[in-house]
Design brief:
Blueprint: H1 3-16, H2 50-61, H3 65-79, E1 85-96, E2 98-108, E3 116-125, E4 130-141, E5 152-154, E6 161-163, E7 166-168, E8 171-173, E9 176-184, E10 194-199
Antiparallel strand pairs: 1-2, 1-4, 2-3, 3-10, 4-9, 5-10, 6-7, 7-9, 8-9
């Protein structure tokens, strides 16, 4: 993961405030839009257990299992104990009144033979100037086919909180709930409420 590149991108767009007209939105090769994923049906989608998520989250984020367990326990209490997917990756963010975030990671589902690369980008309200990078581990609820992930997710107002030194907030759209857990230099709760878009390719526009 090219963390420095992500930071430079987010800082440049935050400082500019807007992108020039005609700027291309695609910065990577498009992946197939209709892959033949071996998912039987919505009813048969397998969920991840608490122990599986704690193990994966602590490994991906490089933190103690106790801290990850505390965050996931809180999410389970508020969103339920049947997340059907998770996304592990990194993101960079910058803020100058209006903040921007860019991330890249891997979508994991039990019914997939391999993980799927995913990108996200979004704008949010922030009040500090600068750039930061963080690891992100996102629990996904209500996702039964990977194609359903790719859309815009408004942040849930008032959902951001800190637990065991980790930042958590919720994003929701069309019955799908995302619960990103963040750690790293750039823990900024003030910039968590906003709209995040998930895509198969990296987009320069954060909207």
């Amino acid at each position: 993961m090219h963390r420095r590149q992500l930071i430079r991108t987010s800082l440049g767009l935050a400082a500019a405030g807007a992108l020039p007209a005609g700027l291309g939105a695609c910065a990577s090769t498009r992946q197939p839009t209709d892959p033949n994923y071996p998912i039987a049906s919505d009813q048969n989608a397998q969920a991840y257990t608490f122990d599986e998520l704690v193990a994966a989250g602590s490994r991906e984020m490089g933190i103690a299992a106790e801290a990850m367990g505390s965050a996931i326990e809180r999410i389970f209490a508020e969103q339920g104990d049947r997340p059907t997917a998770y996304i592990a990756g990194e993101e960079a963010a910058g803020a100058a009144v209006v903040g921007v975030r860019y991330g890249r990671g891997a979508l994991h589902m039990k019914d997939l033979s391999a993980s799927q690369e995913v990108f996200w980008q979004g704008a949010s309200i922030g009040w500090d100037v600068g750039g930061n990078a963080s690891r992100v581990f996102t629990l996904v609820y209500g996702l039964y086919h990977p194609d359903m992930l790719y859309r815009r997710y408004p942040g849930v107002e008032g959902s951001a909180y800190l637990v065991a030194g980790l930042g958590v907030n919720y994003q929701r759209a069309d019955g799908i709930v995302l619960a990103p857990i963040r750690t790293g230099v750039g823990l900024r709760l003030g910039a968590n409420v906003g709209t995040m878009s998930y895509s198969r390719q990296r987009n320069l526009l954060p909207f």
